[in-house]
Amino acid sequence: MKTRRRRKKTTACALLLAVSLLAAGCGSAGSDQGDDHPALPAGEVEKLYQANCLACHGQDLAGGVGPNLQQVGQRLTAARIAEQITSGGKQMPAFKKRLTEAETEGLAKWLASQPDG
């Protein structure tokens, strides 16, 4: 039972991370493309990752219980990463009630901009 719960938690974190990486890649070229939310400081976004995603996706984004998120921005847009974080999927829980929209967008953009581990 603990393994199943841990697997779900890990999957949720992976999805959150993937969505965040996707969001980070879109519109991260320095221009504000009509974002409704101010950008979060990088240190705050990293703390969000550590608190919500690290257990499943690992310190270096290499995965574990959740999928590898290294270079996720090359596979998914920041918007898709944010959607994954918000809604969850497969084994990843939804973070809609845990994270604000600004936190989700910040995390997604950050993830999308991360190079490989």
UniProtKB/TrEMBL annotation:
Domain Cytochrome c positions: 38-115
Protein keywords: Electron transport, Heme, Iron, Metal-binding, Signal, Transport
Signal sequence region: 1-23
Annotated coiled-coil segments of the chain: none
Name of this chain's protein: Cytochrome c
